[in-house]
Amino acid sequence: MSEPQRLLGPLTASLRAPFRTVRQRWRRSLQLRVVTATMLLGLMVVLALGTLLLHRIEAGLVQERLTAAQGEAARGLRDAQAQLGTATDSSTVNRLMNDLLPRLASPDPDDSRNVILLRAEGNRKPAVVPDLSSRRIDRSIVPQALRDRVERSGKQESQFVSVRRTGSDTETPGIAIGSRLTLPVAGQYELYFVFSLEREQQTINLVRRSLIGGGIALVLLVGAVAFVVTRQVVRPVRQAAVVAQRLSSGRLHERMVPRGEDDLARLAASFNAMAHNLQTHISQLENLSRVQQRFVSDVSHELRTPLTTIRMAGDVLHESRADFAPAVARSAELLQNQLDRFEALLSDLLEISRIDAGGDLLDVEPVDLRDVVARVVENAAPLAARTGSALQVRACPDAAVADVDVRRIERILRNLVSNALEHGNGKPVEITTAVDDQAVAVAVRDHGVGLRPGEAALVFNRFWRADPSRARTIGGSGLGLSIAIEDARLHRGWLQAWGEPGHGSCFRLTLPRGAGGELSSSPLALAPADDDEPVDVGAAYQRLPMPPLGRGTPPWVGRG
Ligand SMILES: Nc1ncnc2c1ncn2[C@@H]1O[C@H](COP(=O)(O)OP(=O)(O)OP(=O)(O)O)[C@@H](O)[C@H]1O
Ligand SMILES: [Mg+2]
């Protein structure tokens, strides 16, 4: 890690933490989402309406002022024209103009109307009345464009301007209305009335402030209403979620508390009715499952006695087969094989019954897994010879010691190795052991038929076989892996499968080193390293409750 990265790491982490909390809250809280969305929508509506309203008021006020100003300007022009009509020399015109100007402007202290007199640009008369303005209004505020229009049209023209006094920086909005004024002796002049829009501006500012204040209050109110309403709806939904969670964790007596008679009370009542029906059905199924389990257990036990007798008789026949005719001898052999299978199946069934009855205890002791593997490989040698697969052991150099029930672990590995040999198509089978601080693992890898997509989870189902019609020479009841996964689970371990058609399979057993330890990873990889495909692991299955014997029993039914 580079130096800046190392320094920035904690900073970005501390910035990210609150962001994550907000995002988490946003995703989890329906109420927060509804309130925020309502407030945002409310804000948008208030903004749109406020802007529209403000524009309307602004336009109305200005238009009204413009009409009034145009009237005042026309009246003022008429007065000026009438008063000046009598003058005959330039000094009288000058005096009259100086008297007239303050009267045309609004009387003090009202500053809303001012007057500017400007000599027309085309006026070449020798007699000159100087440009005048009331109350030190800056004469340059009259835009040239307005002057041109007045000059050209000869009618009253108006334009919005910024009013400024000479020597002052402050500007206020205003309207300039100009017309031509013919002065006796001095010729063409332009008379401009400049009306201040300050009062209108103040009114508009007041309206704007009120709209903003009102808008904020409205949005907050909408948010508060949304909060109260959603709270009323969300509370029972949250309660239902909590109760549903408790129901799913097995507390089937949990119920909601219906309040009142509204829709939410009906929801609570329907929820409770559903929970009640579920509870009844689950109890029935549990009873049924228990009866089925007992039936299987009883039948298995009952079969044991006659099987022992048949076995003894079969052994006698088998030993004397040399004295029989060839066809009868063959029958004695077949009988012996099938009796072996029958015995194995019966012992598996009894084991499953014991598992279903629960209360199985582990007889743990520190065991080196490499020794167990060596024993299993030795015992599997005849089968390996029969199938033509070589057994290759890759033991780790360090002792792979864990607290386990050796009988069960040996049973798991026996089944994994015999499965690998049976399905390994005569190719070598590798058995690898590994160990780390927390776990020990054994992986049995073959290069035979492999598993089709989805089968990595199915193999752990009871009585599941990839090809039920396949000729079976060994085992083959489909119970081996379902017992193995139960054994692994008793150790709080993992039994996982990986396989690809034509590329073989790998079954990995991972066990915590100390009894009762928790696993977080395995020291061995499940899929081959060069495999880019997503791993189809039977791992999901290991966390599900095991379906008890008997078809049609739902998987959530626990052991009786
Ligand atoms: N290494 C493997 N390669 C391919 N398929 C396998 C492998 N191991 C198990 N399977 C499939 O999973 C099925 C279930 O295996 P499981 O060990 O539970 O039963 P079984 O071997 O058929 O019978 P048994 O109860 O005698 O063990 C097998 O029938 C086979 O179809
Ligand atoms: Mg098997």
Fold and architecture overview:
The chain has helices at 3-28, 30-84, 90-104, 144-153, 198-248, 263-319, 326-357, 369-379, 381-387, 406-423, 455-458, 480-490, 539-543, and strands spanning 113-119, 132-133, 157-164, 171-183, 187-196, 365-368, 391-394, 401-404, 429-435, 439-445, 494-500, 504-512. It has 560 residues and is α+β, with helices and mostly antiparallel strands. A five-stranded antiparallel beta sheet has the order 2-1-5-4-3, with helices on both faces. Strands 7-9-10-12-11 form a five-stranded mixed beta sheet. The chain has a two-stranded antiparallel ribbon with strand order 6-8. A hairpin with a 3-residue loop joins strand 11 (494-500) and strand 12 (504-512). Helix 5 (198-248) runs parallel beside helix 6 (263-319). The relative contact order is 0.06. The model is unreliable at 531-560 (pLDDT under 50). Bound molecules: adenosine-5'-triphosphate and magnesium ion. Magnesium ion is lined by residues 415, 418-419, 475, 480.
Number of strands: 12
Order of helices and strands: HHHEEHEEEHHHEHHEEHEEHHEEH
The number of distinct helices, counting runs of at least 4 residues, comes to 13
Structural class: alpha+beta
Shape: rod-shaped
Bound molecules: adenosine-5'-triphosphate, magnesium ion
Distance between the termini: 56 Å
The value of Rg in angstroms is 50 Å
| Mean pLDDT figure | 86
Regions with little confidence, pLDDT below 50 for 5+ residues:
531-560
Reading side by side through the largest sheet, how are the strands ordered? 2-1-5-4-3
Strand content: 5-15%
- What summary fits the major beta sheet? 5 strands, antiparallel
Relative helix content = 40-55%
